[in-house]
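Reading a protein record of the kind used here takes only a little practice. To see the layout at work, look at the sequence and C-alpha cells printed below.
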Amino acid sequence: MERKQTYVFSEIEDYRQWLENKHLRTKNKFVLVLTLLLGAAVVTYMFLTHMDLTTTLTMMAGFLIVILVNVAMLAYGMENYRFYQMNQYITTFGVFILAISMVFVFDSPAMIASLFIAYALTAFYQDIKVMWISNAFLVFAVLALIIRYPGLLEFPNPSQESDFAVPFFFLVFVFVLTISSFILVKQKRFFYNQIALSKENEFRNIDLLIDMQNQVRGRTMDLPKYYANTAAFAKAFSAKLQMENVFQKKIDILQALDSGTPVSVLQAKYPEFTKEELDRFQDLLLGNHEKLLKLAMKISYVKDVHIKKREIFSETQFRSLNHQSDNMEIKILAFAVFYASLRRGDSFMRPLTEDEIYNVLVYTDYYYTIDPGIIRIYQENNKVFDDIVNDILGKKGKA
C-alpha cells in the first residue's frame, strides 16, 4: 500500500526529520549527563558502604561502558544521524540492565526505585520504540522479582485476592506509564508537524510571489547588473582596505553557476576550490527559486509583521530572522541586509538613524526575532555599524 503523502513539498518531510534529529542530539546529551550522575552516585555509595570490591568495579565498568558508548555515538552522530537513533536503544538496554543488576546486587527492596529511575531516564527520548523496550524491561524486572523473592511483596492481608492484586497493580501501573509516554510522544510529533507545516506554507507563498514576479516583469531580477555591482563593490572594498581583491573569483563562480554552468566544469577551471566549496556556493545564488532569493523575498516582508508574543510556540517565531534551519552565515547575512535596508530607507519609509534602529532592535520585541549571538554583537559594536554605514552611504546613511 502506497504511503499517504503528508506534505505537498517532499523536502518538508526531511525538514521535520531534521528537527527531530537536532533535538535528539540534545536529548542524548541530557540522558548522558543524568546517567553519569546516576553512575557516580551508585559507585560512590558502594564504596562508602564497603561492598565487595569486585562487585563495585563490575558495576562501575557497566556504567562506564554505557557512558563511553554514548560519547562515541554522539561523535559519530554528527556525520550520520542514525547513530543518535541507535544510541537511544543501546542506552535503554544498558540502563535497564544496570538497574536490574542493582536490585539483585544490593538485595534490597529500596533498589526497586532504580527501575523507575531507568524508566524516567529513557522517557526523555520520547520515542515509541524506546517506550516499548522500557515497558518490556520493566515487566521482566517485576516478574523476576516475584520469582526470585516470592515473599517480597506479601502483605499481612488474609484476603485471597492478595496473590493476584500485587501483580495486577504493577501491570496497571506499567499500562498508565505507557499511556502517558504515548501521549508525550504524540505531542512531540504534533509539535514538529506544526513547525514543518508552517515551513511548507512559507515555501509555497514565497514560490508564488517569485512566479508572479516572473510573469509580471518577465524576470525576477537583473542578474548581470547585480553581479556587476557586486564586483564593483568588492573591488572598491578591497582598495579601501588596501588588500588583494579575493572576492572576484568567487563572484565569477557565482555568476557562472547562475548561468547554468555545471560544477564539474567550474572544478576544472578553478582547481583551488573543492567540490564541497563549489556546492556551498549554490546557497548564494539568486536565480529562479534559489534559497538566497527566497531569503531576500522574506526579508522584504518582515517590516509588515507585528511581533506580539515571545513564547517559542508562537506563530510569529516562524516569521523571524532566527530560523533553526539557517546556519550562522545566513543569519548574519539576513541581519546585515535588514540593517542596511533600515539605514537606506525606500520610497515607503524614511532612512532611520543608528539610535532609532538600536532602540527598535534592543528595546522592542524585535529583539526576540534575531539570533542571540548576532544581537549581542550588534549591541556591543553598534557604533562600528554606524561608522561603516556612514562611510559607505555618506549623507544618506546619516539621515
Q: What stands out?
A: The chain has a mean pLDDT of 76. Residues 302-399 form one domain. Residues 132 and 335 are 46 Å apart (CA to CA).
